[in-house]
Known about the structure:
mainly alpha
Amino acid sequence: MSNNRGWGQPGWGQPGWGQPGWGIPGGGPGYPGPPPWGVPRPPKPGVIPLHPLGFSEIVGGVFATVKRYPKALFVPLLQVALPALLLCAGYGGIAYGSLHSIYEQTRHSSTTTAQGLTITAFVLGGLLVLLLTLFAITVAGSTTSTVVLRYAVLGRPVTTREVWRESRPRLGRVAADMVLVIAVGVGIVIASMLPSLVVGVITHSLASLLLLLLMLPAFGLVLYVQVRLVLIVPVAVLEDQRPVAALRRAWSLNQGAWLRSFGIPYVIGLIGSFAGQIITLPAGIIGAFPLIQHGSQLGTPGAHPGIGDLLWLYTCLGISGAVVFVLTFPLTPLANGLLYIDRRIRRESLDVALLDAHAAYVQSSTAPAGTTTARAPVQDSTAQENPVQEDGVPTDTEPARTEPEIADSDGSDLET
């Protein structure tokens, strides 16, 4: 039975590429430099070399993952995005039927109170549906993209079914983590408003509004906290941490790397945004064509843009935006996942555990037919000494397929 305990334990003492001050000329503490003549390059079983990652290696790793695993990345995302899009389209159809009648009734008269309330209700309902669908897509896409990255780092194949099988148990925790991060940001903003509200209630003075200036540094603090916690999804998925524990772990792991955690995903997002313009600009021109045509006829009596023209524009923009969203969405979670791996390589020698996992996988995949290779024990924090699955079957009797495992911050193994 293998004694491999996952993707690396904090405090491992053996030297490796994950140790700060690796000793290669040209790289500062924790930053890789070009290997000198005669020194072999670090192994690269997957999309990244197994050593502390530089900017170009993270960017290259993100797009290499998209190139090598398009089906595993985009199919799960489409399986969530398409039903969400249909839900929004259905709501839009219902809203169109009601708002079109109001539009026709108010073309030559003012809007009544009831009609105004109806319009407001449909607008607020549309925003709620949009926010909920975007949140569901974000949770599912972030989780599945991080699971795919776990295989991409070691160059292993993965199917859509395997991605969903590993992602489903973690969707709830990822959703809770995202809600927790949002709640922290909202709490900071509300706390910055409290002094102004308290002073205003006590003194009834407009001077209390000056205290609202405290919101400016509060927004800066929110930005700092949000960036500091960008590793929370990789921690939740790869270490299977509970929400509060994942928040603490992400905060601690990302210490001293705020600028990298802000800059690298931002640059990758800009690249994706520029690429998305190739789709959205032509779609916007096509969608605006009826409006442009009506605009040239505004001097003609009775010629005016109709609600159908606006609906066509919104449809073109919506479809093109959805396509760009799906194509570019995995970029950010992949970047955050590689930042997580980089931090663990630098601080916890994760590269050593990854090399062990890759060697075990190569050994099991090249074993002669009919032989059985021992599988690494699947353990959790409550049963580390008893490598038996929930159904009572010992793990060393299962077919060989070693998979990378993540150790939590105190070194205990967690099933992934």
